[in-house]
Amino acid sequence: MTIALPEGHSADANSTHGPASRMLLGVGQATKATKNEEDSSVSTASLDRDSADSSRSTNRTSSSSLLLKQRTLCTERHELDVMVMEFSCQDSAVGKAVGRNCKHMHWRVGYDRTAAPIDINLNVQVKKMHSNEIRIECDNEVIVGGPVEHAKTKMIEDVCCQWPLRATIRGISEHSFFEFRPPYSTSDSWFPATVTFQRSDGLFDIIVQEPSQYGRLKDVKYTAVDKRNLREASTGRPLVVLEDFLVLEVPKNDPLQATLKLANGELAHNYFGRPSPPPSAQNRELCFQVSNDRRLVTADVGPSMLAKFVSGEVQSVMSDVERLRRKWTFQLGPLAEHTIEIKALYSLQGYHPSRGWRGFSGVRPFRNLL
User: Fold this and answer.
1) d(CA 202, CA 301)
2) Quick one: 158 and 27 in the same domain?
3) For residue 288, is it within any domain?
4) Measured between alpha carbons, how far is 178 from 160 in angstroms, rounded to an integer?
5) Rounded to whole angstroms, how far apart are CA atoms 237 and 231?
6) What pLDDT score was predicted for residue 108?
7) Judging by DSSP bridges, how do beta strands 158-166 and 65-69 pair with one another?
8) For the segment 159-204, what is each residue's pLDDT rounded down to a tens digit?
9) Backbone dihedral region of 171: left (phi > 0), alpha (psi from -120 to 50 degrees) or beta?
10) 180 Cβ contact list (under 8 Å, min separation 6)
11) Which listed site, 47, 81, 177, 253, has its alpha carbon 20 to 30 Å from 56?
12) What is the DSSP string of 289-350?
């Protein structure tokens, strides 16, 4: 909006003129004030936007890795026996020579004797321009990667995959084994409780004996109860649920250094093991017959097997030593027999019978493995 002033009049704030000039000056001051308010609002919005961007960048910095949490795996056992049953790592020397290093890592981790182990596959491809690509699969299901088979995804940040593990508590279905404190209660009153079911989300279904309005005890069912509201009736100790998790960390800057760890930060490679006896083995039961006068006990096995069963000692069965192979057979107790074999596929480093020296990363000589 343009305002024309009469001749001899100016828009100076210190000048004293007639009503018309004062009116024009008022309009000018109002316009200037409105403009100042707009500038102030714009600057305020700009500051808010800058602070929002700053907070977003702070959150991005604080959570610089992408966390992919999988479904919690529960076992019916009261302990968690985490063991790496199989591990393999393959590196491509040809890809490394041309600047496209490839690496495949495979883990099979067991946590329950009766459940199938967790099968984890990681494929990494590193290029010279730091355009790293990965593909993560678990039990033949794609976690990170494209929908097409062997398709990888470009890394824009660190990737962290987590597999929670949880054991079953002791005392389920035992009458009044626990005590329950209602979360809404203001007093420190505990009531006898029986845990009827442990849910997959870590909560519990219970039956509590609470006094009624007539002073009699009545059974009240509660669902989805947190462990913080339960304790052992005999000792008064809080309820402890054994939990652990596997975490696969793939750094963006160097995905070839991906590691699989446990909750305590130790590498999963420190937990190599196999269940003994193996799950495929048939369970052997020992039968005893006791006479009516309880003076004679007859068993279907001899005294040596009973002594081995009680002691559980490790015994060597066989040892086979060759130039490129070592083989040991040992026995744990009277029934569990295991064989460990270490061998070198080829005696010459970097040589493959069908492909020769080209395109083969090679296997280290056996003498270097000892």
Assistant:
1) 44
2) no
3) no
4) 37
5) 6
6) 94
7) parallel
8) 999 999 999 999 999 999 999 998 888 788 899 999 999 998 899 9
9) left
10) 190, 191, 192, 193, 206, 208, 222, 225, 229, 230
11) 253
12) EE-TTS--EEESS-HHHHHHHHH--EEEEEEEE-SSEEEEEEEETTTEEEEEEEE-S-SSTT
User: Is there a contact between 226 and 193 (Cβ–Cβ < 8 Å)?
Assistant: no
Among 116, 79, 110, residue whose Cα is nearest residue 273: 110
Amino acid present at 43: S
DSSP 8-state class, residue 272: B
Bond prior to 238 in cis (omega within 30° of 0): no
Q: What angle do CA 43, 46, 47 make, to 5 degrees?
A: 90
Residues 152 and 267 occupy one common structural domain: yes
Q: Write out the residue range of the structural domain in which residue 46 sits.
A: 22-63
10 Å Cβ neighbour count for 106?
15
Q: What is the pLDDT of residue 99?
A: 58
SS3 245: strand
Distance CA 14, CA 35 (A): 21
Whether residue 77 sits in one domain with residue 130: yes
70-85: b (≥16 Cβ within 10 Å) or e:
beebbbeeeebebebb
- In the chain (370 residues long), the average pLDDT of successive 10-residue segments reads 42 42 37 45 42 40 69 90 90 62 91 90 83 90 87 90 94 94 86 94 93 87 94 93 94 91 91 78 80 90 83 86 88 83 67 44 39
Spatial neighbors of 229 by CB under 8 A, at least 6 apart, are 180, 181, 182, 183
Structure pTM?
0.65
Q: Please give the C-alpha separations between residue 243 and each of 72, 111, 198, 264, in angstroms, as whole numbers.
A: 10, 11, 14, 11
